[in-house]
Amino acid sequence: MRITEIFHSIQGESTYAGEPCVFVRLTGCPLRCTWCDTAYAFHEGQEMSLADVMTAVKSYGCRLVEVTGGEPLAQSQTIELIESLCETGYKVLVETSGAIDISPVDRRAQIILDVKCPGSGMTERMWWPNLAQLTAKDEVKFVVAGRSDYDWAVGIIERYGLTGLCPVLMSPVFETLEPRQLAEWILRDRLPIRFQLQLHKFIWAPDARGV
What we know:
By secondary structure, this protein is of the alpha/beta class.
């Protein structure tokens, strides 16, 4: 499989925000979100065997692992990687764009599904049946670029009953939407979700890699 980077950092998002985590970033993505902050993962990286990836992950001595991208599920070998990590006893998070069917993913892993708001330019690429496959241990994430994205996201949350299904997270596009503005919308609407920021962009430089 082609790997862009494997690194040990502080989890910047999700309900595990703040925890040490090993990230396995796979190369390639069929989407081109307008606000993408990991475009370097579209083409960079090197070929690694499953055994080499597992060895690299083990070297950090951390039990929380996130498989991400790019879009990790765009590579067929990712399914075997996730299964191997689960078999080895890791707590596995899989961050996916929602554009690819999640049904083959080992259900011991925790899906973090990024629902693409209109501001991303990729809403039409969503595979909506994915939402019906989520369970209470999974998470749904909305990255919001402005008020129209927020209103759209609220509609999706209500339509699919997401707050009664699993944790729902919402974050502003970095340096595009003022965090306080999004927080005020959530509070005004009494929206029962989790507001989040990308912690790693405040700890390190926003464009830093390997963090």
